[in-house]
Please model this.
Amino acid sequence: MSLAETLPLWMFAALAVFLFSGFPVAFVLGGLALAFGTIGIAAGEFTFVQFYNIVPRIWGGIAENLILVAIPMFIFMGTMLERSGIAGALLRCLERLLASVPGGLALAVTFMGTIMAATTGIIGASVVMITLLALPPMLRARYDPGFAAGTVAASGTLGILIPPSIMLVVMAEMLNRSVGTLFFAALMPGLMLAAFYAIFVMLRATLRPELAPKPDPALIDAETGSVSLVWLVAAGLVPTAALIALVLGSILAGWASPTEAAGVGAFGATILALFLPPLIDRRPIGQWLGQFPVLLRDVAERSALTGGMLFGIFVGATAFSLVFRSLGGDDAVDQLIEGTGLGPWGLLALLMLVVFLLGFFFDWIEITLIVLPIFVPILEGLDFGDHVARTDLLYWFAILMAINLQTSFLTPPFGFALFYVKGAAPPELPMQAIWRGSVPFVFLQLAALGLVAAFPDIALWLPKAYLS
Amino acid sequence: MTRVATVLERIVCACGRLAAWAGVALVLVTMADVVTREFTQSSWGTLRSFSEWQQNAFGSTKLQELEWHLHTILFLLCLGWAYVKGAHVRIDVLREQFSERARSWIEISGILLFLLPFTGLVVWFGLDFTASSLAQHESSASAGGLGHRWIIKAILPAGLFLLMLAGIARLLSCIAQLTGSNMGRAADRDR
Model:
């Protein structure tokens, strides 16, 4: 192959090198697009005018795009639930409800991860949030630190899979498929994983009670104050769960587009934040309302920064992909793939391995935005015969990729969710304990991955049954 | 030099903070669109007539276009602010091992080689893009949409220009740090 033909591959090699410089990912992507475009001009493979296309691409792909509008509003909803203290109240309520069940505190974390999945998007942020909220109570109740940390890491990352996750919105956009259908496809595998976690936690706590001692009732009461359990459920659990059920349900029932549902969710979260927190703790509401404008500004600003970060990578990746394509990147990847001589299952395994390894270093944002578009032509060439219909292939692949990414985030020693747990946990919690605790969850993930690969209907049955 | 940097950062932050409210507006507009579309069939007279008035006066198309207009304002004008605030993702596996000086050098090289050329290019072509929209009197493609498309298109070069200013500010403070005129940890003020 000549230099011109290998240029797109060098582009990726350069990306790998420069990302590790620690310069922001978004700008490395944009800068390399420019650099390799310039090299392409010198090699006669690119023209300066083609750079202009970056602008309409950013415009049409990111700005004038009503689907992506859902993302800032889901971020807003999640940030509002977290900053207002509603998320914390939800966890305290679940903890008290489940206090007498074996492994109750860990089980509460699993449920919390499932319910709040709607509003968790960025892995780092959601793992940090759930670690800060859930780990200290478990450690105070003398839970085994590894067991506690593993549960926290797994539950905190579950949010990328359970709809309405932001990652699924982005994936559907990159695969050019319907967001609603992908939500449907993700629902059963997500709930299946949550059930696996719950069963594992309860079994382990039953078999080895010393790992998860029942918390002292006095300790639990100290956490939630004098508020009665019924009140805590009525104020702390029901409204929040209802809001999230409304958001998800209205998308699945076809009443609202994901964007509309996100708007309703963000608005609803704001209304809840307006009166719920003082109600839960039975504090005077006047003082809370007085502080509300400050909270609203804080939430708006935090959400805007998260959105700026996410869409920054979007902008950079758009430029990168455009230049990569123009330099013949798709052909170069095709040749590489043909060179391997693998069949559909072999290729699927290869792509999964690539995603798994990338997940050690990158959040789903980078992986989905940079790598997924390159996978699409490969995927469209795959034929699994009767195992998966051609029309459903991309949905199935997206779900496999989502489970796989989550597995990667949890896998010691590199899985980066584990580092976020370490960062947010009390300093005396050793990294080794976190690694040890996450191993069983990695096996649960691999089991789920294998099941969805072997039985695509776990993901595809629900959309087929409801949407046809 | 650091004074120039501070002023630039203030400008970028002020624009970002202001644009953050577009998120709140976005939520309200989306909610208004959903509610009034649902309630044009409401049996409650006041609500129905209000909804009908809204749908006739503004229409769902206008509101939906307003939604992505607000989204565009929100993310583009916050790009530079996110850089000042250190919110942009970095792969910091190796970065943690680097010295202060090495980090500053990387930041300076990154800004000069990647950030400034890229933002410069997008601002330059973005202005072209806006100008041609203005020259064609471009309006919404769908009936009942918003007019004057060039205004929102101008946000694209504006946002990237703010990012460029943020880059220049960081560049100046990194240089100041290397030359010793400022003991602040310029490359590492994140969060």
Remarks:
- Chain A touches chain B through 66 residues (CB under 8 Å).
- Chain A has a mean pLDDT of 89.
- Chain A is about 75% helix and 0% strand.
